[in-house]
Amino acid sequence: MGGRQDCAVLIAGAGPVGLTLAMDLAWRGIDVCVVELRRRGEPPSPKCNHVSARSMEIFRRLGVAGKLRNAGLPPDYPTDVSYRTSFTGMELSRIPIPCRRDRYDATEGPDVGWPTPEPPHRINQIFLEPILFDHATQMPSLRIMSRTEVASFRQDEKEVVVRLRDLDSGENDEISCQYLIGCDGGRSAIRKAIGAKLVGDAVVQRAQSSFIRAPELIKLQQVAPAWATFSLNPRRSGNVYAIDGRERYVIHNYLRDSEADFDSVDRDWAIRTILGVDDSFDYEILGKEDWYGRRFVADRFRDRRVFIAGDAAHIWVPYAGYGMNAGIADATNLSWLLAAHLNGWAGPSILDAHERERHPITQQVSRFVMDHAEAMAQQRATVPDNIEAPGAEGEAARASLGRQAYDLNVQQYCCSGLNFGSYYENSPIIAHDAEKAPPYAMAEFTPSTVPGCRTPHFCFADGRSLYDAMGPEYTLLRNDPALDVTPLLNAARSAGLPLDLLDIHDAPDAADLYHHKLVISRPDQHVAWRGDAIPTEPVQIVDLISGRY
Ligand SMILES: Cc1cc2nc3c(=O)[nH]c(=O)nc-3n(C[C@H](O)[C@H](O)[C@H](O)COP(=O)(O)OP(=O)(O)OC[C@H]3O[C@@H](n4cnc5c(N)ncnc54)[C@H](O)[C@@H]3O)c2cc1C
Fold this sequence. Notes:
By secondary structure, the chain is of the alpha/beta class. It has helices at residues 16-27, 53-61, 65-69, 125-137, 189-193, 267-275, 324-342, 352-381, 391-413, 416-420, 466-469, 486-495, 510-513, 538-545, and strands at 5-12, 32-35, 50-51, 81-84, 91-95, 121-122, 142-145, 148-155, 160-166, 172-182, 198-213, 228-231, 238-242, 248-254, 284-298, 302-303, 306-308, 314-316, 474-478, 499-503, 518-521, 527-531. The longest helix is centred in the last third of the chain and has 30 residues, at 352-381. The relative contact order is 0.13.
């Protein structure tokens, strides 16, 4: 450290959300600096295991999806979800999810055939983050300062001055930036500093989590391994995630309402019961974390030049794999808005759209997830006593619970709605029209060009993805090559708004998905405007979508 430094955007926190935001900003040419408490290479705790298809689409654009896809579980390790009487017990049902080797080619399964160039990926955060970190460090105009804390900040109408503390030397330094973004996790000091309050439901669930090494466990299973294994029995239900497909696992033991606190449950007993092993079985505890599942969304995401995103802005029980993935969606939204302003073609008012767009959709996700958590707690609490009984009676009980577990959980593990259905309503920078977006649901999705929806994806006849063909900024998708769009392109050019033209009429699926002749897709691949003709005043559309309202 030493001497006052400057950057356009300073991000507190190099977790998955801070790194995605930093990479997306740097990809848009913005000078960005990330400050992180951990030392370089220090892994996070093994929390998140699921990267959504939508997040993978974002990583594909940033050039890091391939590296992520090739990491995590072994290529042929089944990424299924299995419901059993215990980890080593009888299987009740299984949700088939293609292993990463087969992910692009698989033809069967509840999350196969989705309209995306990047299907979901099962990888733990301990493998994901180092890949994002390495990729970020190779990007020009992106700096990461490890073992450094954002200690405090002050802002005025021109800048934010941030005080940084070197955690090894204890030295302080100052850095000036245009915008400060708190991606500093659930305990965010930046959220507190801007006076944002978490609003929601205090405790939805309590879980005792253990990260273990157990090299012999894989061989004790009666059925094929799975990525996630749920133990459902009357003694202790819980779930087990395979982390490396060999010897490391994370086990979540959910406390019952009658259990007073974390210490009142014998961790070793609970682990052995969930696994279905006796006292002679050897395992080693690598890490422990006892946590409360809550449903909280900050009442605001911004104070003038300071924003919060990811867990800093919202925390909930990690169902549907949509904690980190919701934060990555925040990052993608905030990145292009900041870049639009900092690159000079949009005024600061465009930034008002971030909270207007992200807050309502985040609230909706938090409620889906809470409802699911309650349904799962109910299922754990009502496992029949005869679930492990031999003979016809036990078999009937297992078939019934297996079916229920499948039906309930296929919604969260194959949640096409959460992946692709998010839309922005009442946005100040979207030209909303009379048609309503399809209903937003966890597990169902209807592609739509209603302004605010994710730009429907298809492949061109040569197999090229629409998203690969679209540039980083606005794209005018034209379904009728005879339509002269020069006035609209000229209006955009005069306003400095970057708008590329892409003809889509010869793509086999475009006609089914695109019922208007023209659609403008935003830099974050959401629809900004659609129509069958150039508007009489094209400049009005250009002004609206770029925040000159
Ligand atoms: C058991 C469990 C399972 C989960 N599974 C999933 C899943 O499958 N899918 C999913 O999407 N989500 C899942 N989640 C949620 C997911 O882990 C989080 O949503 C995600 O880590 C949030 O990322 P983030 O970058 O916002 O915050 P974090 O990952 O918390 O990162 C914040 C970073 O900020 C740094 N920091 C903090 N304060 C400062 C400061 N003052 N200065 C500088 N740096 C600072 C921290 O060191 C940290 O690296 C799970 C969570 C849990 C608990």
